[in-house]
Every structure is written in C-alpha cells, then in structure tokens.
Amino acid sequence: MEWHTKELVRKIVAIKNASMDRFKKYTKDMKILGGKNRVIILNKYMVLSALIVMVTALSLYGIHNYKSVETEMFSNAYEVIIEGVPFAVVRNKEDFWDAFSEVKEQIQEINDKEVVMSEEISFVEVKGYSGEITNHEKMIRNIKLVSDIKVKVAAISIEGEVIVLLDNIDIAREILEEIKAEFTNEEDVEYTSIEFYEDVQIEEVFSDSRDIRSKDEALYYLRKGTDEAKIHEVTSGENSWVIAKKYGLTVEDIEEANPEINPNRLKIGQELNLIVPKPYISILTKEHATIMKNIPFATKYTKTDAIYAGDRMITVRGVQGKKELKVFISRRNGEKIEEEILEERIVSNPKTRVIAEGTKPRPATIATGIFANPTRGRLTSPFGMRWGRRHEGIDIAAPIGTPIIAADGGVVTFAGRRGAYGKLVIINHENGFQTYYAHCNGFNVKVGERVHKGQKIATVGNTGRSTGPHVHFEVRKNGVPVNPLSFVNY
Ligand SMILES: [Zn+2]
C-alpha cells in the first residue's frame, strides 16, 4: 500500500491543473483499478481534478468490486504506456506484467546487479484493437526500448557532486586507495593521517549502466580533473618553458591561450592567461619527521697591518652549525603546505668566521685590479680574428709621441725590441694579469722598475710591423691573451 499511495500523490500533483469541465465529461471513463492493485488506469485523453483523485485515493479499498464490473464493460484490450510512450496493446494486464518481470530478471542477470525500472506505467482501455495485440517477444523488445532501466552502481562524489560511476563499491574503493597511494609512497615516512582534502564519498546509486566507467577511465578522469583559468605573472628568470613545466602544460598551450604574446620574449611582470588542469581530488597527509638543518655562521671583522688597505683575508674559517628538528609536516598532493616545529635540538654550534681587513698603506705600484686606458686615441682594430689571423690585442691610433701610461700598477718585465711588436713594454701586475704595449717610439721605464697606475712608461710610435702610429695593447691572463675591451673603454 505504501507504494500505491505515494504513486497516487505523485499523480495528483501532476494533474492539479485539470479542468472541471473535462472532468465532468470524462469522469465516467475514469477507472482506478490495478493489476494486483498496483497500477492506475487513466483514459489517455483525460485530465483529472486533484480533488477527485484524492477522494478516489481515500476510497481505494472500496473499489475492488467496482473494478471487476468495469473490466467486464471494457473487456477488449489495454494500451500500455511507459514514460508517456504507448508501446503495446495487451488483452490482459497480466500479459504486460509477465513481460515486464521477464525483462527485469534478464537485466538483473546480465548485470548481476539490482535493477530498478520505470514506475511511470499506465493502462488505457481501448476498443477495436483485437487484431493488434502485441506479441510477447515484441513487448519484451519494446519494454527494453522505452523503459527507464537503472542498475545499482557505485558513485564517487566530490563535494556532494557525483563525478564518476563505477561497477561496484570495491572498484570505487580501489580507485581512491590508488589515488591516495600516489602521494603516500615515501619510504621512511610514517603518516599520521592520510585524507582527502575535499569531501569525497562513495555511495550506491541507481543509474543507466551505460554511464559506468572502467577503473582506468575513472582514474584518468579524476586525475585530469577540470580545467581552471589562471593568470600567471612572469617573474625573474622565468621563460615560457619553465612556466609551462610548472603548471603541467606545454609551451604550445601557453601560446594558444596568449595569441598576442611572443612566448620567446616574456617580460618580468607580464601576465599570462593559462588554462590549467585542476584535479578533482587532492590528498592531505600529515607526518612526523626529524630533519637536520644547518645553522649559518656569523662573520666578525678585524684589522691587520699584515695586508694592504682594501685587501681582506679570512683568518678563521666559518663553520655552519647543525640542529635537529622534530617537525609535523602537512602536505597537499606531496607539496608541503605547513611545517610545525615541535622540538629543536642543537647538535653543533656554528663557528664564527673572522675576516681581517688590511690597514698597511698601499704602495702606488701595487695593482688595483682595475685597468685604465693606456693612451688617448681611436680604436682602429678590435681583438679577435683579422685577415685570417688572430689579433691578440687592440690597436689604438694616436699621433707619434703621445704618452702611453701603465694600465695598472706592477713591475716592468720587458722594455726593448721584439720582432713584429717593435719597441715593446710588458708589465706584470702580480695578480695574474700582464699588459703589453707595442710599436712604441721611446721608453720611459727600464726592466725591473716598479710603476704605478697611470705612470708614463713610453710614447706612441710606429715601430715593428705597423702601418701607422698606434699602440697595440694586449691584456694577458696567466699568459693567455684576453679581450682588452672587457677592461678598458674605447
Ligand atoms: Zn695590433
């Protein structure tokens, strides 16, 4: 009776707008009958008033006798309607119910699952259809076609929304375990809790069996999630490849979402539109861990007259200390989101670094480490390949007799003629660098003499292999020529 009453109330709501006129006209055709007392029979053209159905519902028990009388009156046939679709004509309602049960059993057997089928079933008495009675096989076929058949399946729902349907609860559980395992596979870690960040539930629901996904499909779908629009602001050191990698995208994805931007020329602060995947499920884990951390050392400065002013010397090497931390770490999908320090123990204290700063007056002939331009003039030939030969220095054109100065302090190691160089001065700056000044006209220094930065050492000439007055200036680092234009400005 429970079922019948519920069904009636539903019908009453459906027809609450019925017109009284129509009701009066058709009321005599109305029957509330039922095979096994389960079905409402309505004339298919009829519209009912809510009031009358209510009255009928209340007198439900009293219509058994009435039924047989009425059935006799319309003994020919019934049209069967499922979900509003007429699909069969039967002589007895039993013929339909037999077929209906058969379909249900078949589906139950095939799916090995509980099945629910349409409840929207009605019968309409018809006349003159004797030759059009639907045969059993056709009725079975039609029931499968028009009936709303649902099987019991397992649903994974997230934040109250059903996301995937699985064949059964065991598969749903396996899927959730597998997703959890992805972020909890660290060895040596004891997780104190492993939970879903979102509200994730497994429930049993009735659904169309065609909506069931395989385990792999469901895993893919849950991991891929939905797309989410995001704006990324380019920061220092980022290029499109780095940004793409960060969000699990490709450079092409970024190009596609930002057609007006050249991905090879990103500027700091530039905003990029990104469509990034957002997984449906994320895993929140908590773990206790013991970690060692370095304690940085401090630096103390002292003075010493053992070295020149401006020079520094480490007199005590600094050593980092160590501390052991007991921490409680929360991670979302493996990424640390919180770290709480529960206990801290110093394993070793850091050792302060001591740097001595020189106070000894610096002699002018000590190299400063910064080169001055050796002469005034015009750059006529750069460093590097020239006419198929390597040019080991730069050429600076200037009139004969123009002063040449020491680019930095040091000691003169050569002052004389040397082949293609002509008259040449070499200064050793005693810091790994040597400078060469070639094609000179005359010398102002001798070998072994100490010179200070800016001191006149020679004059511009045209000696050796030279096609006009100029200085050929070389900078050598540990004997190897390097580009002087990295040190001087012309
Ligand atoms: Zn040259």
What is the secondary structure topology, with strand pairs?
Layout: H1 2-14, H2 20-26, H3 50-58, H4 64-73, E1 77-82, E2 85-90, H5 93-111, E3 115-116, E4 121-126, H6 136-146, E5 150-158, E6 161-166, H7 169-182, E7 190-196, E8 200-207, H8 215-224, E9 226-233, H9 240-246, H10 251-257, E10 271-278, E11 283-295, E12 299-308, E13 312-316, E14 321-332, E15 335-348, E16 353-360, E17 378-381, E18 384-386, E19 389-391, E20 394-397, E21 403-405, E22 410-417, E23 423-428, E24 433-443, E25 450-451, E26 456-460, E27 470-477, E28 480-482
Parallel strand pairs: 12-16
Antiparallel strand pairs: 1-2, 1-4, 3-5, 5-6, 5-8, 7-11, 9-10, 11-14, 13-16, 14-15, 17-20, 18-19, 20-27, 21-26, 22-23, 22-25, 23-24, 24-26, 24-27, 27-28
Bound molecules: zinc ion (ZN).
Q: What is the count of distinct domains?
A: 5
The amount of beta strand, in percent, is 35-45%
Hetero groups bound?
zinc ion
What's the overall average pLDDT, rounded? 82
Estimated structural class: alpha+beta
Helical content band: 10-25%
Report the count of strand segments: 28
What is the rounded distance between the termini? 105 Å
Number of helices: 10
Rg (C-alpha, Å): 48 Å
Give unreliable regions as ranges: 1-74
Per the principal axes of the C-alpha atoms, what is the gross shape?
A: elongated
